[in-house]
Amino acid sequence: MEKIEQAKEFLLDSPLKNSYLIARLEEYNIHVGFSNKNEGEIEAVLIESEGYASMRGRKKGITSLLHELEEGEYRFHAVDNEAYHVLKEVLELEDDHPTWFFKRPNRYFEEPGLDVDELVPDDAEVINEHWGLQGTDSTDYISERIENGPAFGIRRDGELVAWSLTHYMTEQVLNLGFLHVKEGWRRKGFAKAITEHMCRYAEKNGQTPVVDIFKDNHASISLAESLGFKCISEHHWCSVKK
Predict the structure, then answer these.
(1) Distance (Å, rounded) from C-alpha 74 to C-alpha 72?
(2) pLDDT reported for residue 40
(3) What would the pLDDT profile of 157-169 be if each residue is shown by its tens digit?
(4) How many CB atoms lie within 10 A of CB 137?
(5) What pairs with residue 72 in β-bridges?
(6) pTM for the full model?
(7) In order of start, what are the domains of the chain with their CATH numbers?
(8) What is the mean pLDDT of residues 6-30?
(9) Cβ atoms of 44 and 64 closer than 8 Å
(10) What is 201-240 written as a DSSP string?
(11) CA torsion angle 145 151 155 158 (round to 10)
């Protein structure tokens, strides 16, 4: 518990950009690096669990924590630029999939304008069929995100034709994901309606809506910008070997 509180206090200095780590603090193993000069001052935080990891902090602290990792392969998520450059210096980088990190300014939200329903676990298979990152357990992951919500969709004659879920939440942040509208149902305002519904949900809970979008996904970037999202930083999703 002490490490969780130490790490959280350090990461809350930038609650939006560090939201991925904050959301995982109670799920992952926590490694905290302290300054050699100022006793008790945290220099870096690294979290890891079952081959997944992420980190934030000063170069010296991150370097030290990376050297302490056990040998193996790791998938690093939502690493900022500073930590990414250290990662490349210390470990063997196998791939990198950078994203732009967007936030939606507060007090910008509109009425959805269309009926939006809550999703149910049975919707997971349909959503998985249209998700570009399917895996052996991705349907289970989607079901978990529906159950832990929020998760909303639009139906026409009983068919789910558009949807959006979250990847994680913190007290400060709602991270949107999975936004999709089926072929034949586009250009009808469904993406905007669902996003506005999500943003209003966030607003009621005192959260800021954010989203990570791969840099080469120009269509999604354009859509996010048209819906009022502003790019605030860059993240890296990469595989490394130690």
Answers:
(1) 7
(2) 76
(3) 999 999 999 999 9
(4) 9
(5) none
(6) 0.89
(7) 2-100 (no CATH), 117-226 (3.40.630.30)
(8) 95
(9) yes
(10) HHHHTT-EEEEEEETT-HHHHHHHHHTT-EEEEEEEEEEE
(11) 50
